[in-house]
Structures are given as C-alpha cells and as structure tokens.
Specification:
heterodimer, A: 186 residues, alpha+beta, Alpha-Beta Plaits, 5-stranded antiparallel beta sheet, 4-stranded antiparallel beta sheet, 37% strand, elongated, disordered C terminus, B: 562 residues, alpha/beta, Rossmann fold, 3 domains, 6-stranded parallel beta sheet, 22 helices, 37% helix, globular, binds thiamine diphosphate
C-alpha cells in the first residue's frame, strides 16, 4: 500500500539528494515527491508518497531511515491521519476553437480552470486529490492531451495539534507505531 | 584571522586528535603546509586505503575518533573501500579530503571528483566546505556525529580556496543539529514488555553484538547474563564483549559459528539481541530462523528494528543505559535444564574438533592461531584480514577482554589486517599486536610494511600462506564440485619481501619450528613477518551453506579427527 510522509528538512544544498538516495539505497519506490519552502526560511518541507509492499513494517523502516539523515528534522507518517491532500496538474489539450466550450464544461464540473488559450489548444489547471485529477485526465484524453505536468502530492494534517507531537529521535509516535505493530503479530 | 587550513588543525587539536593517517596531493597542500605548526603526528601511508584502515583500527581499539586525510580525485577515491569498511562496522572515523577551488567545482577540473556524492551512501554524514568560515563548525559537528549515537564515518571535503582563505576562528562550544538527537533511554512500558518475555522464557539466548562494546555495556551484560542465567553467543564483531572463558559463553554464532551456539539459537524460546543487527551471516535463512523464539531487540539505531527479524519487544536506546535499567527489573532465574542441554551439544564437538587432531606433520592454520593464543596468553590485540584465517582466529583466539579484536565484519575487506594493526599500535604502543592475514589479503596492502618500518610500529604479522584464496577455494570445493576458478595463487617470497622492507622475517614449515618462531617474533622489536606454509586445502567448519537454516551446518567429519 501507499504511505504518505511529511518530512521537515534543513534548507541546505544537497538535502534533496540525500533523501532521494536513501529511497534508492533502501530499495523503496517513490511514487511522488514534492519539495518546497515553509513559513520558516531555514526549513523545507517534503511530501513523499512511497509504495510500501510490507505495510507498517516498511513505513517504520522509511521513517527510521529518514530520521537517520542528519538534515532531517521531523518525519510524520500521515497515512492514517486526517489530512488534506492536494496535487496540481496543468493539462494542455488540443482543441479547435469550436470545441472549446466542451472543455470549458468539463473544467467547470471538476472545478478546474482554463488558464491559457491558444489558437489550437488550451491549458487546464486542476487542483485536487489524485482521484479527481485522474478522473479529469480520462475525460480529456479523447480530445487529445498534448502534454501534462503534475506537482506531486502535498499533504497537511488537520487541526493545530495533530494529536501526536513528537521529539525527533525520541519519538513518541514511533513508539506508538511499534506498539501497533506488536498488536498486529499473530 | 587564520587560514582555513590553520582553523582545521586548531579544531583537530581541540578534538584531542593525536595522530592523522594520510597522503598529500595538490588539493590538500595548504593543509599539509599548515600541519607542521601543530602537535599532531602525521603518518604517511603508502596508499590511501591504508590510511583509512589505520584510522579505523586506531578508533576501534582506542574508542576515540580516527582521522584519515587525502587529496582530491584519486586520493579520495582510494579512501572509498576504507570508508565503506568503517560504515558497515559503525566505526567513528573522520575523513578529510581536499577538493578543487570552489569556483571550479562542477567544471571537471583536474582531479575533481564528486566526493560527497560518491560517499553519500557510505558515510553517516558528509560535508562539502566551500568557505574558510564554515570549517570550525563543520569539524566540530563531524566529530560529534562520528562518535555519538550509532557511530560511523563522517567525511569533510574542503575546497582548496577554503583552506587558503582567512576567517575568524571561533571554536563553537556547542553543536546545533536540530535533526540529530540519538535516543538514549527506552520508555518504561517497553522495558516492561521485555521483562514479561524474560519471565516466561525457559530457553533464552543472548546475542551479543558490536553495540555491547561501543556502548561499553560489558558490565551490564555480565550482570544480566548471570542474574538470569542466560547463555551468551557473540557475533563476529561482538567477540570479546563477554569473556570466552565464562561458563555462560557460547562463542561465536553464525555461518562459521560454534555448532552449539547455532543449535542453542535455533532451539531457543527467547532471543535477546543486544546491539546487533541480524546480518545474514549470523541468521542463515530468515524463513526458519529461531522459529520458536520471541525476540527482544535492543538497538540504538531504530532503523535496525524489524529490519531483518521482527522484534516482539523492540527497545531503542544506548545499550548500556537500557541494560542498566533492565537489570533491576528482572528476577533471578535458573535455567539448568537448558544449560545442560547446551552442554551436551558442546561436548559432542570434541570428537570433531581440529584441535584434537594428532600431528600429521602438516601445519594447520587453526593450530597456529591456538599457538599464538597460548604464547600471548590470549592477551594480544589481534587484527585479521578476511578469509579462512579470519574465521579461525575468531574461533580459536578466545578473548576474555573487550576491544582487542579488530576485523572487518560487515564489509569483509581484504587488505584490512596489516594497516588496521598499524593503526591499533598508535593507540596502544605498549601492547602486543598481531595481524593475522592470508597470502591473498596480505598482498592487497603489503606496501604498508614500509609505513610500519618508517613509524617503528611494533606489529607482528602472521601470514597463513595456503597458496590459495582459501575461503573462495573452500566454497568452490563445497558448492562448485571443486571446480577451482581463479583461486590458485603464486605468492612472492614473503621472507625476501619483508627483508627488502627491512623487516625481520621467518618462514615456518614444520610444527616443531612454530613456538620458536612465535617467541622470536615476540622478542624482536618493531615489525616482524612470520610466513606459515599451511595445509593448502583445509576447510573452515562448521559452515552454514548459503540459504540454509542456521542449524543445517556442514560439520567437520568425525572420522577426520585424530
Ligand atoms: C577486497 C576483497 N576482494 C575480494 C573478496 C572476496 N574474498 C573473500 S575471502 C577471499 C579469499 C581470501 O584469501 P586469503 O587472503 O589468501 O585468505 P584465506 O581465505 O586463504 O585465509 C576472497 C577473495 C574480499 N572479501 N575482499
């Protein structure tokens, strides 16, 4: 199954490389990775979606290995936490002027926007969950998608307190996860 | 204001560095130029791999951080094997490499290599330093990271301009690493889980790993083992953490472990894994590993928990702290029945042991190890290379004291024996030091003999010459129907080779010459080489074949015994 991690990392050169290298080295596949600045200029934030064939055990491995990177300040596995998740896509569709209305209609249903219009094409911007973007893509495909770009998923847990405040390294959450794993054993 | 190079040395002095192993070159020349003004001894090696292993050996016996230094490009890449060796065995070494000028980085300048890129997966952390004013903070952090938590190598790649430029020297009193806070204690509720498992156990076994030595938990381990009457098996790197002569000691576990240690593990109902990581060399196939045992795993590195073996009670923290917390929580137990059972397995071994062979006129490497053990009272610092001889030393140089056993476990690096011994000598110049090597591995770093001469390093080298890459030959014998492929090796005349280096040497071909030669080596000052022409096609037993269960060992046939 897929797990979603939020990692707060020091905003220094090479940190993205360290994180990416870790996943390759430990033999996990990244489904999507989004990096950006945060409210604190010294901290960058990554949302990493990873395929975890062995479920919680893999998730623990990933979290613990991320913590081993000196530049990683905090890691949260938000897979099972109430959170808001978004992905943004720009989709360029080939349309003759007379069929633009069709695209417009679709965009409206998906609450997407047409952000650029050329003679032979339009660019649709859509924000939402993975499912929503896939849904829209499927409907646009018959019209002719010229190119498409996605930012990768970003996530944020709901509320001010996510319920598990953790000290990096001395990780209450991590211990919780282990207790969960204990409960899972036959 | 000081030059970056001076700041570097100022920092090394403040970190308590006494000795640096290295090799100069263009991109690190300013550092070597500044070095002359500082009270740190520099050992000029013959190949940077040697420098890495020396710093490693020094760190392993001293418990301090070792330091190795090299220039950019080929100097740095020559270190790589040594860095990986230190990484796999969690040894604190700080590696310092020169890098081309910051403004040339990325332009394929002469001897430019992306060293931080290359070493990213084989260091605990690494730094690329482009300005002089970064050096003090980086060096301070590097030493802190190398020795704390789960120790490991840290590399600092310093651009040449940063070595030359001036900066204010402020030695940071504290390190600020928001993302680095190794855990020391384990929460009480997890300790309680462990206590409950210990209470129920009838057939417990302790697996003692390198972590016991690194967290200095030997005392706590002894208290725990005696109080709960639990036998102790050691990993290759855990040897020495629990006295081999103790009645509870089971010796080494794993692929070439004692048969009774492996039997005990497979038949146990509780495994207490202390500072070890369930490497495939100690578990055999995981599918059938200790099938009826619950597992308590104490580790400072949370990523080791559940990595290979699922832990019923995972405890994170510094082993000594956690064990010290745990000892008062457990009751005294008496596992006589279990210990008797193990003793039966132990007694059966005598009939197979190579130690009970009659003299057939041939030299057996295993016997020689035992002879060296006797001569040195089991008290020398011993390093090995990698191969059959390494396993025989692990089996027959029975250690009662910690931190006197240096071997490349995780990385299995041939060429490690001699340089690590030289490094160890710098930590304990008054101690007897032996390096045991095969003829193959010795040749990989034999050039460091000159380094030993130049430094007057008092190390005794025992080459077990079987004219084969013995361990690979054994595998070909056992698993490839004896099709020998690229294992037969011509060796130079090691006595002449030593002689050319100015090192006293003797070749030993007969049993009756052995003790004399060992005593001669011990009495002779400075480096000495003994070449033993040993039985060519001897095998290490027991052997757990790859993919087999831990107790499916190939044993030494009974009929071979004398
Ligand atoms: C650098 C390196 N290359 C190759 C190997 C694979 N290897 C492991 S043991 C061994 C044979 C070692 O032969 P020798 O040094 O003569 O020691 P012996 O096994 O005969 O005691 C080899 C080639 C290794 N461990 N390290």
């Amino acid at each position: 199954m897929q797990h979603t991690f939020i990692a707060l990392v020091e905003n220094k050169p090479g940190v993205l490389n360290r994180v990416a290298s870790l996943f390759r080295r430990r033999n996990f596949n990244i489904e999507s990775l989004a990096v950006g600045r945060t409210e604190n200029p010294e901290v960058s934030r990554m949302t990493i979606v990873v395929h975890c064939p062995n479920g919680e055990v893999d998730a623990h491995k990933i979290e613990a290995n991320l913590y081993k990177l000196i530049n990683v300040i905090d890691v949260q596995d938000v897979t099972h936490q109430p959170s808001v998740t978004r992905d943004l896509a720009l989709i360029k569709v080939r349309v003759e002027p007379e069929r633009r209305a069709e695209v417009n209609g679709l965009a409206e249903i998906f609450r997407a926007r047409i952000v650029d219009v050329a003679v032979d094409s339009v660019i649709v911007e859509i924000t939402g969950t993975e499912d929503k973007i896939e849904g829209m893509t499927e409907l646009l495909r018959p019209l002719g998608i010229v190119e498409m770009v996605r930012t990768g998923q970003v996530s944020m847990t709901r509320g001010v307190n996510d319920g598990v405040r953790r000290v990096p390294g001395v990780n209450g959450h991590r211990v919780d996860a282990m207790t969960e794993m204990l409960a899972m054993t036959p | 204001m000081k030059k970056g190079a001076e700041i570097l040395w100022e920092c090394l002095v403040r970190e308590g560095v006494e000795v640096v192993f290295g090799y100069p070159g263009g991109a690190i020349m300013p550092v070597y130029d500044a070095m002359l003004n500082y009270p740190i001894h520099h050992v000029l090696v013959r190949h940077e791999q040697g420098a890495a292993h020396m710093a490693d050996g020094y760190a392993r016996v001293s418990g301090k951080v070792g330091v190795a230094m090299a220039t950019s490009g080929p100097g740095a890449t020559n270190l790589v094997t040594g860095i990986a060796t230190a990484m796999m065995d969690s040894v604190p070494v700080v590696f310092i490499t020169g890098q081309v000028h910051a403004h040339l980085v990325g332009g394929d300048a002469f001897q430019e290599t992306d060293v931080t890129g290359i070493t990213l997966p084989i260091t605990k952390h690494n730094y690329l330093v482009m300005r002089a004013d970064e050096i003090a903070e980086v060096v301070r952090e590097a030493f802190f990271i190398a020795r704390s938590g789960r120790p490991g190598p840290v590399l600092i790649d310093i651009c040449k301009n940063a070595q030359i430029e001036q900066a204010e020297f402020v030695y940071p009193e504290e390190v600020k690493l928001p993302g680095y806070q190794p855990m020391t204690h384990s929460p009480r509720n997890l300790l309680d889980d462990a206590v409950k498992l210990i209470e129920k156990a009838q057939k417990p076994v302790i697996l003692c790993g390198h972590g016991v030595l690194m967290s200095k938990a030997e005392e706590a381990l002894m208290q725990f083992a005696v109080k709960t009457q639990t036998p102790v098996a050691c990993t290759l790197l855990g040897l020495g953490a629990f006295p081999a002569s103790d009645p509870l000691a089971l010796g080494m576990m794993g692929m070439h472990g004692e048969a009774y240690a492996n039997m005990a593990i497979q038949n146990s109902d509780l495994i207490l894994a202390f500072g070890m990581r369930f490497d495939d060399r100690v578990t055999g196939t995981l599918k059938t590993y200790a099938p009826n045992a619950k597992k308590i795993h104490i580790e400072i590195d949370p990523s080791e928990l559940h990595k290979n073996v699922y832990a019923d009670a995972p405890l994170v923290g510094d082993l000594n702290t956690v064990l010290t917390d745990l000892v008062p929580l457990v009751d005294e137990y008496d596992h006589t029945e279990w210990l008797d059972q193990i003793n039966d397995w132990k007694n059966e071994v005598d009939s197979r042991s190579i130690m009970n062979w009659d003299d057939n006129g041939k030299l057996q490497a295993a016997h020689l190890v035992a002879d060296i053990w006797k001569a040195t009272g089991g008290d020398a610092i011993v390093t090995t290379d990698v191969g059959q001889h390494q396993m025989w030393v692990a089996q027959y140089y029975a250690l009662d004291k910690p931190n006197r056993w240096i071997t490349s476990g995780g990385h299995g690096t041939m060429g490690f024996g001699l340089p690590s011994a030289i490094g160890a000598w710098f930590a304990h110049k008054d101690e007897e030091i032996w390096a045991v090597a095969g003829d193959g591995g010795f040749q990989m770093t034999a050039a460091e003999l000159t380094t030993a001469v130049q430094e007057g390093a008092n190390v005794k080298v025992a080459i077990m010459n079987n004219n084969f890459l013995g361990m690979v030959r054994q595998w070909q014998e056992f698993f490839c129907e004896k099709r020998y492929s690229a294992v037969n090796m011509i060796t130079p005349d090691f006595v002449k080779l030593a002689d050319a280096h100015g090192v006293p040497a003797r070749r030993v071909t007969k049993r009756e010459e052995v003790n004399d030669a060992i005593e001669w080596a011990r009495k002779t000052k400075g480096p000495v080489v003994l070449e033993f022409l040993v039985e060519q096609e001897e095998a290490v037993y027991p052997l757990v074949p790859p993919g087999a269960a831990l107790d499916e060992m190939i044993r030494r046939p009974v009929k071979q015994a004398g």
